[in-house]
Amino acid sequence: MAENRTFLWFSDIHLDPYYGTETAVLRDKMGFGENCQSPSKLTTHPLGDFGCDSPPELLDSLLQSAATQAKPDFVVITGDFVRHGNDILLPSPTIATQEILYTVSELIRTYLDAPVVPAVGNNDVTPDYYMDIQQPDDMLNMITRGLMPLWSEDNQEGMAAKAMFQEQFPQGGYYAHNVTSTITVLSLNTVLYATNRQPQYTEVDVDPLGQFQWMKEQLEMARQSQRNVFLIGHIPPTIGSYRHTQLWHEGYLETYYNMVQNYSDLVQAQLFGHIHTDEFRVHNTFPLFLTASFTPIYGSNPSYRVVTYDDKTGALLDYHVYYLDLTATSLTNATSVWQRGPSFTQAYGVPDMSLQSLKTIVEDLQNSTDTSIYWEAFLSRLHVYTHGSEVCDATCRKEWACTLSSMTAQQYHGCLKESSGRSGMVAALIVVVLAVGLAIIWGRNCWKRRHYSQTVEHHVAEEELPPLS
């Protein structure tokens, strides 16, 4: 008999051990204005602040909260353990990156006793997005060393998982882990496919570091073993929702989605981070889930997810967001209260996290005003209950509906054009209806004027005249 089980999902931790010092990350470096480097932040905002990456106290708070959850089957971390800007703020960025990876990994293992599957993010390499596919060894070995504490050596299972990670990950930054008797998680190195990847070569490698071939082999093994598969990674195979730019090169998108389509009977989840907001995408035949960040640097409350799934089918059923309200948290007291928001199905009034449920949500959003319960749920969850009062006008709603249902920039712009075309047809129809109505009224008034101008003997009785319009 199937049983509903849970797993934890963290993303975009971006630990900044230098918070409150002159080498802290702050958005001011990118054109914003939060003074995360002031030592006063350690006393006034010990758990972090909007515009800053995560201080150690905030990560401790997260893991303490996560440790109180009913024991999860496993933990997935969809990339970006490391703070922003190591390469521009520190003299030895590679060493600092490895140290931050190691610190986060040690803390997670200290608090959580469950298999952990990490994915490499664009800030887990240095410089940002740097993955030289011709000479990747130094970078991949650095990340491998940084993540080593994630695997427990207290039992044979943990030692076997660690050995598998050490064997697979240095080949290309990808890794497979059988986290339960029915579920295999494939962790993908999405930096390889990013449009921002550096260095760029004039000749396109159709399968950088052999990840697609490895992915196909792993999916075939899962099919033969009758296992379900979760795909996780950092940079999602879709467009961003801020600039609506392509996050993956389209050639890689096509290869990836063809493979997912070919193994759609096995792939039960696609989980990604990177965008720092709580979103999803609807493809023709499978859904894509994108989680909000732990770091508050871009204005989202720190959060993580507890996901419920069917242990027999592997289907995702629901998830709760646990979050820390930074505005409401006492600035002088490091004690934190993590709140549980409404679940996905409660917020949107759908039975599960299936493709059909996502399509229903998109349709509800398309057909609703900015004050509807659907838009209220979507906008409040987007930045994890920090921007719940946002107003989304007709143009905004159109753009979001197209964003949620597009995987490529071309699809997005095509959707906008089609939507504008539909709006234009509706507007034209309204104009025609109004014109016809006005013509009828004008004609009736002309008829009346013509009869009133006749001689008295030709007048008909008043009651026989058309009623006044």
Automatic annotation (TrEMBL):
Stored SUPFAM superfamilies: Metallo-dependent phosphatases
Keyword line: Glycoprotein, Hydrolase, Membrane, Metal-binding, Secreted, Signal, Transmembrane, Transmembrane helix, Zinc
Residue ranges of domain Sphingomyelin phosphodiesterase C-terminal in the record: 298-419
Gene Ontology CC, one term: extracellular region
Statement: the UniProt record of this protein carries the keyword Hydrolase: yes
Superkingdom of the organism of origin: Eukaryota
Cofactor(s) this protein cannot do without: Zn(2+)
Keyword Transmembrane included in the entry's annotation: yes
PANTHER family noted in UniProt: METALLOPHOS DOMAIN-CONTAINING PROTEIN (PTHR10340:SF57), SPHINGOMYELIN PHOSPHODIESTERASE (PTHR10340)
Protein name, per record: Sphingomyelinase-like phosphodiesterase 3b
